[in-house]
Design a protein that fits this description.
four-stranded mixed sheet; alpha+beta; 130 residues
């Protein structure tokens, strides 16, 4: 990777806002906050995560963590309090957002159009343009 590519990558990482992580018991909030990943627990055991779609469409995304149900995601809570989800989140309906959630940040898949603009809207807390 050349110097220019490394600089662009470093700069883009600075534009990606970091999401907070909050634990909630039983159910995700009816009106989740932007840039927050909610870990939904029951008796202290995580079974789901929820977040507002980072594209700005306003939809709440729910990802299952129970291994006996499909689809299923794996959640890692890092030492610095950030979270990582695996595999990627791929909305098949609506806005069709497709992204990786790593270390509390959204990384848009390469084919997603206007990824830089999505990062800037997310950083500024703006909704999706109509």
């Amino acid at each position: 990777m050349g110097v220019w590519a490394r600089f662009k990558s470093w700069f883009r990482d600075r534009l990606r806002p970091r999401f907070g992580t909050e634990y909630v018991e039983e159910d995700a909030p009816a009106h989740p906050k932007a840039r927050t990943l909610y870990i939904v627990t029951e008796d202290g055991d995580p079974w789901s995560v929820a977040m507002l779609c980072p594209c700005g469409c306003g939809e709440t995304l729910h990802m299952n963590l129970l291994p006996d149900e499909r689809p299923v995601w794996r959640l890692t809570v890092n030492g610095d309090g950030t979270s990582t989800l695996h595999p990627s989140v791929n909305r098949m309906k609506g806005c069709r957002a497709h992204f990786w959630f790593r270390n509390g940040r959204v990384y848009w898949c390469d084919y997603q159009s206007q990824a830089l603009m999505k990062d800037i809207r997310l950083l500024l807390g703006l909704g999706r343009p109509q």
